[in-house]
Each structure stands twice: as structure tokens, then as C-alpha cells.
Amino acid sequence: MDQRLAELVEELTTSGEPRLEPGRMKELKKICKSSEEQVSQAHHLLLTRLREEHAEMRFSAFQVVQELFARSHHFRTLLIANFQEFLELTVGIDHEQPLPPPKEVAQKLRRAAIKAVQEWHEKYGEAYKQLSLGYHFLKQNKKVDFQDVHARTVAERRREEEKQKRLENIYKEKVKRAEKEMEEMSQEIADTLTEMENCFQLLMPDPFNFGVNEIDPELSKQTSANEARPASPLSSQGELYPSSLGCMDDEQPCCSKDILPVSQCVAADGNKEVDEKPEQEELDGGTGSDIPFSGPALDDDDYQTFVRNHGLVSHKYTLDLEISTDIKVQENEDNTAIINSVMDAHKLLRNKFWPSVQSWIQLLTRAGINDDRLRCAIELKNKLETAMKKYKEIDISFKARKRKVMKASDEDDDDEDEDEFVEVPEKEGYEPHIPDHLRKEYGLEPQSPSKAPVAKASMGAAPLRSRPPLKGSEDELDPTCAAATLKLLRDKLPKLPSPHTSESATSETANLEDPDSKRRKLEERAKAPLMPFGLDLHYWGEDQPSAGKILKFTSEHRFWAPSEVEEEVENKEITEMLKTRYITFAGKFEPVKHKCRAPMPDGRLCERQDRIKCPFHGKIIPRDDSGIPVNAEDRAREEKMKFEKQAAQPEWRDPEFMREVEAATGLDLGSSKSNGKGQKKKGKKQKYPNLTDLKQQANTSRSRLEKKVFNKGAMKRVMKAMNRVDQRKHEKFANQFNYALN
Amino acid sequence: MLGLMAARQAGLDDPARLRRAERTRRVLSLELNKDRDVERIHGSGINTLDIEPVEGRYMLSGGSDGVIVLYDLENLSRKPSYTCKAFFSVGRSHPDVHKFSVETVQWYPHDTGIFTSSSFDKTLKIWDTNTLQPADIFHFEGTVYSHHMSPVATKHCLIAVGTKSPKVQLCDLKSGSSSHILQGHRQEVLAVSWSPRHEYVLATGSADGRVKLWDVRRASGCLSTLDQYNGEKSKASSETANTAHNGRVNGLCYTNDGLHLLTIGTDDRMRLWNSSTGENTLVNYGKVCNESRKGLKFAISCGCNPEFVFVPYGSTIAVYTVFTGELITMLRGHYSTVNCCVFQPHFQELYSGSKDCNILAWIPAPREPVPDDISEKSLPQQCVNPAYEDAWSSSDDEG
């Protein structure tokens, strides 16, 4: 009976199932019922099972314990007499002795155990002092919350706390570092941002300036609605327009005039065709000229004349202005510098500041810091974001960027310059005369008088010029106007022709001289290889008379003189050295394109891409799709090999057959042995096949590597090798004190 | 027992014999009893316990959070089950509470009107029990590990204090000042104990592994230093010469007659010394697990035939016979390290305090209520508590 009991306990606890098998349990209970001795025996067996370092085993044993605890007083006294150990093994109250893996089962075990302790305490707590003590201990000292589903003990919590603390420390350090970084970098960021902002200002009007325009439709609507006071809204409108446009005009440097003006789609209200142009022009005129249009108090008369002057029927128009948000900036030579700096700044923002700010925020949020630092970082991030968004919105269309190679100021180089680049005179600053066919290149609209009024006259150089002369002259009087600059330049131009144009002129003439030789040179250059500069090139075509000569001075000793010495020795090698060049020829790497493609036992083809020889299948030979060699002789050789292999193993030992025989007879005939390593491992019988294999879980690549690397033999070998190296050093540098010492 | 009583009545036996036999029996049957409980007041580990020697009724306990609690042990309710009530406590809200862990509490040996307590906050306080105010406070330079008042002194009123400094201080209650300093130890003094036989003899144990016996009337030096090898130079390496233990000595206890001294050290050993000659009696107690870094309080029974010693042993209490070193039993009940135990001589009860905040009362098991002549049938009825019954289901298939 004892034996049966042991068997039962073993079977029950090694099943690995979350539930006990009722049949066996019943049998066990029956045995235990028979006598107290059996009960104590069972208790002993179960306790040894509980001590196993395997959570599944413990869990099953615990379930059996639970069953018996509810039934036998004797079992209860036995268990409670050693309740501390029981709690240690099931609840894990000792934090130096946590529950064994697998983790999920351990969790389950703890939860079940705590629940059981509570139930037991309710039922038997009064009778068994130790039980209630244990319950109170769990409740008060280990702070087990019996309502808590997770049922974490203090030990576990402490472990977690320690982990948390460690993490916190790391974070603290990181935050400190980030803070420092932030301090250092924020200034830089601010500088870059202001730089970018300024560049934007230069490139295009601030979008907030457009806001004034956006108000307009509303105002005009008001106009239509409020007929009683027709003048004031219009006047205000009139006031607004010039001011807004004027401010745009005045503030923008000339480069901003290249922006396509905010396209204003005019939608007429109803079917009244409103010609906006004249008004627009008028307004334009107002900006540049001194037409007094901005008077705040326009009386009725003026208003009437205004309406009449413009051929308007009435003033009941609604002007809907749509401001397209896609602003395009075309790069041209005027704004290259600005765009360059914008681009640089943007690149800096995107590549350097953005990621670092991002990482700060991440770090700060992870560290749970919620104060000025985080706010500051977020602010920075927002600023960066807006700047980057703006940059994207501007949508600069770049010229194809050419890398200008700095050349030495040789004449040859000049020549090259001319060859490589098409004749384009360098342009810097303002160019007064742009030929029509080139206008497009400059990002200017063709100079067509018909379109001129459509294009907003306030922008762009061309329309400016197309203006009637009277207005132009007026413009020129205004020093802030682009026209003034233009005039200034025009005045200066005849006196000092720009150096660039003159240069281009000369080069052009040089070019014209020998187009033939130039072409030849070009062809030659295409053929010639590119070589790094060397001594041979340095002395190219020169004869070096003194090269390779070694001068030996005669001894000036008073009486001691060496035997006859040739004063000059010519060393051929050195002379040669000045004229030779070593070119290493390493060949070119060619990736292997073929595969081994030998058939493998699992039916696939070998995927290895070795150049000549596959380590598994020998020399690589051409094979067809099914892995059979293409050449007949190869095929024959392979056949032969196979045959030989089979011959080495007698036919009756065919592994398939052997396995069958073994299965039938139950004898080990050694089929697994002859069948390689893979089978051998499987042959090893597991003790408890139903339980989770803990060793399997521990069998990670790391542990395997560890086994290899920290293998005693390997360590010894490495030690020996290192000692040998050391030894050699000692022999070599024995006379040096630091080697002599150790 | 009946036989003993008869012999006692007939005058055949020594009058003390019955008493001794019964006491021994009771001590041997000490167990955790469900009928006796001690109120849970302490929120942290219990470092020290003391029962007043006059009536044996009141017990003091000192916790590691500085709290001192006074319990009434006497069961006046005439019911078997009794929970020891706390009379009062010096809680955290008390203005004069110890700031740090209380290491030792002791009653004034002759009266319950005074008790003393010493703590890691470097003070020794003399309390008036009735008003619960400190009557006097002694300040020291180091943390106080232990103090003791002589139970038999009539001519002096000295408290020996072992602190972090290697000097043993003697505080005079009469003058309210530290009167003496005993120099000789090299490291902190973890345990002090007055002899219950000679009022001027003091034993001190220190972290340097030495146990010294002093006569406090002699200022020049100690009486003797206990040597674990009894002076046999061959066995003692130069380092361990004149040491009582190879580790720190953190527990001292005289037997009740004062003839022997028990010491316990962190080398997991307990040694019994002849207190008059300073000789190691070489009683082998085996390994006595002791990981405490502070003083350890253990107790010796009183009036039994072989005397017993109760020693904290991890989370259990080991019971040894003093003179033969035989391990009688392990009292299992605490869930954490036991710090102290104290023996109540009148009813042969043992109280133990542990780090798990519990004070457990170990009560002698009542005599078996089953004389031989009671029939088997009446047995089940004796099981009053249904929890003690088995609950096997009746049908065979159910099991």
C-alpha cells in the first residue's frame, strides 16, 4: 500500500495538468482514509514534492494537499506544525527563495495558496493557532492583500521596487545629462530658429500679415449689408488695401518680389462682372504714388467720383479673396544665399535638434518628470515643428545645385572651367537686362505687356518695368522702392561694367580661337585615367640630375681617415623611384551568383553560395532544377558515391526497417546510433514528459554560447595562448623594466 | 504524579521534589496554545521582553520602532482562553517615546513602580510606571545595546550599560549620573548581566569575542576574562587567546543560582562557564544558529530538575538542557527571526518576541484528560472543536 501511495503521489504531481486526475485522487484519498499512518506518509511524500524546484510539480502537490487538508485532522496538524515551510514553498514568503519557474504556474500557485490559506483560516483558524498566526503574518508582515487578485507578496514587491529604484537612478542620471544638454543646446536652437525665421521673413511675407487681407471679405460683406453708411466701409477697405499692400511692398526686399503673389481669385457676387483689375491697379498706384487714397474721411462726393472714375455701377460688391496657401518660392540668384542658409538651418533642425529634443521629451516623460524642464522641451519641440512646417509650406523650388569645385588658379584650370560649363556669365546682384528667352530661367514671367496688369504690379521686377514711365519716375523717387535701386544701378552701369561680364567676354573670345583643339582635348580627357598625384607626376618630364646620388663627405678627422671613399654614389633605385608608380591591381569583387543546389535529404536544394566548393556537398557543379547534375560524368560520380555509401551499411540494417523491427520487438538494435546525432538526443527518455522542461527554457543561445566560451578547456587554451604571447614579449623586451618586472 | 503526591504526603520525598518534577514536566510540555494569546500592539519587530520578578504578572516589551508596551499576563477571567491585555503603551505619539529601536527593557527588581529602557537613540530612560513619565534620562555617546540592573543588589543601585563604545558604563540611580567606567573591551559591548549571586559581580560580552567578569568595586580592571580553551596555549592561536567565542558575543545569561554563566556568540556556539572559576565547562550544545547583529536575549528555566535553556534559533526557539547540552525540542511558531524570549517562573510559561511583530505565549499543555479507564466510545465527544474532526466522506466511492 505504501508503494502504491508513493506511486500515486508521483503520478499526480508529475502530470503537469492544471487539474488533478479524479480517479487517482480518489484512490489516494481512499488509501489515506484507511489509517493515520498513511496520512503521515502522504504528508511526507507531498512535502518532498513541494520542495522540488518546479512550479508545476509544486502546484499539483499543493492541490493534493488542499484535498487532504480539508479531510484529515491528522494531516492538518502535520502540515500546520511546519506551516512556515509550507508558506515558503507555496507563497514564496522568503524573498531570497522565490518560487521556481515556470513563472505563470508559480503565479497561479501563489494565488491558489493565498486563497487556500484564507479559506483555511476562516474554517480552522480558531482551532489551529499556527494557522492563524501564519494568516496574520501574511496579512500584516508580508502585506498580502487577500483581496488582491495578483496576490503579490512583499518579497515580490520589494524585488520590483529594487528594480524600479535602479531604473529610477538610471533615469535620474540621464535626465541630468539631458538637462545639461538642453541648457547648452537651447541657445543654439533659439539662434537657429531666429535665423530661420528671419530668412522666412526675407523670403516671403509673414503669413500673419495676410491676416489683414482675410478680414476683407467680411468687411465687404458688411458693406453690402450696411447700405446706410456706404462710405465708411469702403474707405476702410481702401485704407486697408494700401496699407497692407504697401507694407508688403515696403518691407519686402526685392527678392521677395519674385514670389508669385498671393493669387487672388475674385469671385463676383451674382452676375455682376466685376473687373477687379482697375481697382487693383488703382490700389497699386496708391501704394507707390502719392495718390491720396488713404484719407480716412472720404466724403460722399469723393465716393461718387470714385465710383464713377472706376466705371463701377455701385459699390455693392462682395469681394471674395481666396488666398492660396501654397506659396512657392523660386530660387534665383537673388535669394540663393538666404535659401542656402534656410536650408542649412533646416537641415540642422531636422538632423540634430529635432531628434535630440524628441529624445529629451521621451526621457523626461519616461522618468516621470513633469515640471519646467518638460515644458521647456515641449516648447522647443513645438517651435521646431512650426519652423519645419513653415519650411515645408514655403516649398522652395531649388535650382539644380552644382558643386563648385575650387580650382587652383592655373590657366589650365580656367580652360577646364570653360569646357565643363556652358557659357554662363556669373550673375550676382541685379541684372538690368534679361533677354526674353532667358527670363524663364530666372524664374521671371515672360515680359508680355498684355499680362502685366494681371500679375500684381507690386511684385516682380518685370511688371515694374512695364509700368508707364511717369509712374516709374515716381517710383524711382521713392528710395524704398525697387525701382529706385534699379535706376541707381542703371546709372552706375555704364561707368563700371561688371567684372563678370567682362570676364565672360574675354573667355568667350578665347574659346572661339580653337574649337578644334578643344574637341580633341576633350576626347583625350575622356580616355585618360584619373590618377592620384604622386612624385612621378611631380617630376613629370623633368630630368633630375642629382636624383639618386648619395653624397658622402670625406672625413675631416685630423689623422684618422677611412679608406678611399667614393664621394658620390649613384643609387639606381632612388632614381627609379622618382619615375615609377606602383599600381596595385586587386581585381574586382564579383558576387557569387550560383548556388550549390545539391539535393538535401528533406527534398530541398542546398542554398549555399560558395564560390568553388560547398562544405557539405563538395565541388559545385551545374545542376538542373531537381538538383541532378547536368554533366554526365558528374552524375555518374554521384551515383557511385551513393552506391558506396549504401554498400558500407549492409542492407538489412536499413534504418527504416530497423526502426520498425525495434518498435515491434522493443529491443534496441542500435538504429538510433547509426543514425546521427539528431536522433540520439530524442532517444534520451525524459523523466517526467508531462512537465514543462525547465532545462529547455534555460537552453537559450546565450547559455549555449556560454557553455562553449566558458568551457574549462577553452579557457585553458586561451590562457595558454595568452601566456605564450606574454612570454614572447618577455623574451623580446627582457631588458625593459616593465616587462622584466612581471 | 499521584505517586509523587502520595510520597510527598507520606513524607518520603524531599518537599521540593514534587515541585521540581511537576515543573519539569510542564516545561517539557510547552506548546503554542490556542487559548493563550498576546494582544498585537507592535507594528514592528519585538526586540526585548521582561517579566517583573515580584509577581510575575506584568510583562514589558520593546519594539524596534521605539514603542514599549506593558501586558498583564494574569488570567483573571476564569476562562481557559485568555488574551493578554495591554495595560498601556508608550506609543509613537507619546512625547517621551524612544526615537529608535528599543533594545532592552527591564523592571526595577524590587518593585513594579519603575522600569528602565535603553534604545538605539543613545539614551537610557528610567520610567515611572504609574505616571508613565521618564523619571530620568541618561545620555550616551553611542547606541545602547544592552543594560542590566542587579537583581540582588542591596547596597548599590547601579545599571550596567553596554554601548557602542568599548567602555562599560555604570549609571547610579541614586545620584542620577554615570559613576563608573569599566575599561577593557576592545569593541562594542553587546551584552551585560549582573550575577544573581554576588551583587558586585558583573559579566559583559563584547563584539571582540571576549567575556569579562568584573567586580565593580575594583576600578583597576576586570576579575577575569573567560577563555574558551581554558588557558591551553596549544589549542589557542594567538588571535583567539583569551576569547570566549570566535565571533561576537551577543548574549549572556546566568543560571538562577548564579553558579554558571551561559554565553552565546555569532560563531553559532553556546558555552557554559563556571562563573566562580571562569572555566569553560565544555558542554557541547551543537550549532546554535545566531545571525543577530545586536544583543540576543535568551532565558533559563527555574526550579526544574535538569535546568533548560531557551535560545532563539532562527525563527524557532531551541530548548536545551543546560548541563548536558541535549537538544530537547524546537518550538516552532514564529515566521521570522526570534529576538528574545523570557521565562515566567511561577507558571512555567515562555514568552517570545520576534521580528514578525508577534509575541507568542508558550504554555504548558494541560494534562491529558484521558485517564485509562474512560471507554473508547466517549473519545469522540471529547473533541469539542469540530475543526479537529476528520471530514472523510462516508461513502467508499467518494473517498
From TrEMBL, chain A:
Residues 527-631 form the UV-stimulated scaffold protein A C-terminal domain. Transmembrane segments: none annotated. Signal peptide: none annotated. It is found in: Chromosome. GO terms for cellular component: chromosome. Residues 500-510, 693-702 have a biased composition (Polar residues). Residues 157-195 form a coiled coil. Keywords: Chromosome, Coiled coil, DNA damage, DNA repair, Metal-binding, Zinc, Zinc-finger. InterPro entries: UVSSA (IPR018610), UVSSA_C (IPR049431), UVSSA_N_a-solenoid_rpt (IPR049408). Residues 410-423 have a biased composition (Acidic residues). One of its GO terms (molecular function) is zinc ion binding. GO terms for biological process: response to UV; transcription-coupled nucleotide-excision repair. Residues 424-443 have a biased composition (Basic and acidic residues). Residues 219-238, 270-295, 405-477, 492-520, 664-706 are annotated as: Disordered. Residues 678-687 have a biased composition (Basic residues). PANTHER family: UV-STIMULATED SCAFFOLD PROTEIN A. Belongs to the UVSSA family. This is UV-stimulated scaffold protein A. It comes from Taeniopygia guttata (Zebra finch). The gene is UVSSA.
TrEMBL record, chain B:
It is found in: Chromosome; Nucleus matrix. Pfam families: WD40. GO terms for molecular function: ubiquitin-like ligase-substrate adaptor activity. WD repeats lie at residues 39-81, 95-137, 182-217, 242-283, 331-362. SUPFAM superfamilies: WD40 repeat-like. Pathway: Protein modification; protein ubiquitination. InterPro entries: Rad28/ERCC8/Ckn1/ATCSA-1, WD40/YVTN_repeat-like_dom_sf, WD40_PAC1, WD40_repeat_CS, WD40_repeat_dom_sf, WD40_rpt. PROSITE patterns: WD_REPEATS_1 (PS00678), WD_REPEATS_2 (PS50082), WD_REPEATS_REGION (PS50294). Signal peptide: none annotated. Gene3D superfamilies: YVTN repeat-like/Quinoprotein amine dehydrogenase (2.130.10.10). Its main location: nucleus. One of its GO terms (cellular component) is site of DNA damage. One of its GO terms (biological process) is regulation of transcription-coupled nucleotide-excision repair. Part of the CSA complex (also named DCX(ERCC8) complex), a DCX E3 ubiquitin-protein ligase complex containing ERCC8, RBX1, DDB1 and CUL4A; the CSA complex interacts with RNA polymerase II; upon UV irradiation it interacts with the COP9 signalosome and preferentially with the hyperphosphorylated form of RNA polymerase II. Interacts with ERCC6/CSB (via CIM motif); promoting recruitment to lesion-stalled RNA polymerase II (Pol II). Interacts with KIAA1530/UVSSA. Interacts with a subunit of RNA polymerase II TFIIH. This is DNA excision repair protein ERCC-8. It comes from Taeniopygia guttata (Zebra finch).
